[in-house]
Amino acid sequence: MYIRSTFIILSLSLLVKLIAIYLTNFDLFGDEAQYWIWSQSLDFGYYSKPPFIAWVISSFTFFLGNSFLIIKIIPIIFYIISGYVVYLLSLELFNNKNKAVLTAGSFYLMPAVSFSSFILSTDVFLILFWSLSLLFFLKSIRSPLKINFFILGIFVGISFLTKYAAVYFLISTLVLIFLDKKTRTIFIYKLTNLLIFIGSLLLVLLPNIIWNNNMGWITLLHTSENAGLSRTIINLLQGFEFILSQTLMLGPFLFIIFVFIIKKITFSFQTKFLLSFSIPIFLIVLLESILVRANANWAAVALVSFFILMINQVYETSKKVIFINNIFNFIFCLFFYLLVASSSSLSFFDRINGISSFAKLIDEKHLKDKEKLVVEDRMLYSNLRYILRNSKVKMYMPYDPKNKISNHFQMSDPLNQNFGEDFLFIGNESQLDYLKKNKKIKKVDNVSVLFNKMSINIYEVTF
User: Fold this and answer.
1) H or E stretch covering 203
2) How far is 262 from 245, CA to CA, in rounded Å?
3) pTM for the complete prediction?
4) CA Rg, the chain, in Å?
């Protein structure tokens, strides 16, 4: 009964998502538009991320077009696939088909998945290949065939190509090796297995490693700077906010019930496995949140194992609790996507509200016959380039070669210091001081927009 009802709710949630995306007037997030731009010029790496997301977008848009709807459907499809892998994971762990089906259905209804289904991010693909890596890790333990270790290395390698947070998989593996004798025997004392795993992992990563080396390891430098460990200031409130965010993402109702029955946990291999691939990650990101900052999605992969653990424990106590939790999570999904469908004016959505209108203003009022547009802000640059993709306009990013590169477009489309053609400029005029040729800068507009906290200045630059 509960399984059938859960899948009815799951189907409704899928329908709600598709209708909301079709009806909304929201625009892409700046990062989504940036990933789309990357997909137009495929490579083995990009300034801030590995290349897999660009490859996927390119594959979808090549066959289906570049519309907002197509781009937004991608995470929904990949989460459906991830849900199936979660089913296989649960089945491999507990050998209980009903439990596995309910786990997979509950995973898709989890608030983290509902929210993330609306955002095309690297986490979408990392979660899929992380889950596949977990599945073949288990298969390698249960049946230590060389092919299993080879496939495990392939999936972990692809995980790294989605997001470098895949390094947590290696950390968690070391934790499990320390905790579990059988894992230790298979990975340490059977050296061939370990070498096959490492070899296939490096085989997948090699093109990206070469790209990074050729680019001066710019992506890894950006990632380390983004972590911000050089700016440590202890803030316990941020740590509390991170814990709260993870609770909300898992589903507060289920989490509260789990806390009450946590003493019933037995430290079987399954428990050690699931805890090893969740708790170390939570602790690392929690520490990061206290010392610097941490976004809620930085520990996204830990939610997979921890959620399976929670469902397993609660399932043994009461299947009804899981069903009630799924109802609660569906209500969250319904409410969130109703806001999306109605293009809500809540400030939460400001970043994706009104960008198309602004682009239309720029195109019709200011660009006219001009074919050069320079934009200082990376997010706005990305959105405008996506929205104006069918126009003849050529876009550039200001970049003073004396400064360090801070985003991808300063690499791919820099405004050269010897540039001497007239252009329209959006940003702070001081950003153009490095240009060598004499220029005249005339402010032609000032526009108040929802997606930017301050009004936007628009200039005409002539030589």
Assistant:
1) helix 191-214
2) 20
3) 0.94
4) 24
